[in-house]
Amino acid sequence: MQEAELPGLEAELDPKPEWQPRYPGSGRLEGKVAVVTGGDSGIGRAVAVLFAREGANVVISYLEEDTDAEATAEMVEEEGGKAVIIAGDIGERDHCREVIDLAIRKFGQIDILVNNAGEQHPDKEITDISDKQLKRTFQTNVYGMFYMVQAAMPHLKSGATIINCTSVTMYKGADELLDYSATKGAITAFTRSLSQNLVEKGIRVNGVAPGPIWTPLNPCGGASEEKLEHFGESTPMGRPGQPNEVAPCFLFLACEDSSYMSGQVLHPNGGVIVGS
User: Is residue 6 part of a domain?
Assistant: First the structure.
């Protein structure tokens, strides 16, 4: 099976995902600095802009989608925040160090790390998953999170937060996303374990497990044409979600509203009931 070309440009999607924050800011992230991987589009874009509305400055990490990243940076600045963008592969340890070094050079601190970047490829048969694809999916989705946390740790102080993006597929499975679902299971276990590892340092670690959300990840390789035609219809709400319906979960976990939560996962998934 020929693997889909990734990443995809949000600027080319029709209809466009809804990233705009839905309510006025209240200063919940005033003076904070956030690093958001995959921050150029989709959920990452919605998170970056919402964080800026709440007072944060944002470092936007992305693979190569310059047009989307530059647009997101402009949106952040329109909300009153400062933004810097950096392209590269988070599956490479050295690049993750570069992202964190940039954050420290520009802003002098890191308070929030959002590990959102990911990739997925549909395959109907497990035998269709190439060695290259399997390694690539784990390198981006799992290795990238380890590398980002390792690079950020020397700069994270008590009160800092880490938020990892897992998926509903970790809980209910996905017959055409075997390698992707496996990485999301690893991310959930990583989130729970890291929360215990860092709790005594005063650093909280939580996760968000979105359901089917309309982002470039899906039409640009994350779903087969057949599934894309009915994307999100299987949820109780009967539709896909929008990035701005997910971003508030990240905001809640990033700010003091969730000060008594660590090792937990929130589920913006259209009403799908899953185990904890």
Answer: no
Work out the percent of the chain whose per-residue pLDDT is above 70: 87
CA–CA distance, 230 with 121 (Å, rounded to integer): 17
Mean pLDDT of the chain: 91
Q: Which of 62, 171, 180, 260 is catalytic?
A: 180
Look at residue 234 in the predicted model and tell me its pLDDT. Answer: 86
Please report, for the domain that includes residue 173, its CATH number.
3.40.50.720
Structural domains counted in the chain: 1
For 26, the domain range is: 21-266
Q: pLDDT tens digits, residue range 173-214?
A: 999 899 999 999 999 999 999 999 999 999 999 999 999 898
Q: What is the model's pTM?
A: 0.91
Annotated active-site residue 23? The verdict is: no
Residue 256 lies in a domain: yes
The answer to whether residue 49 sits within a structural domain is yes
Asked if residue 221 belongs to a domain, the reply is: yes
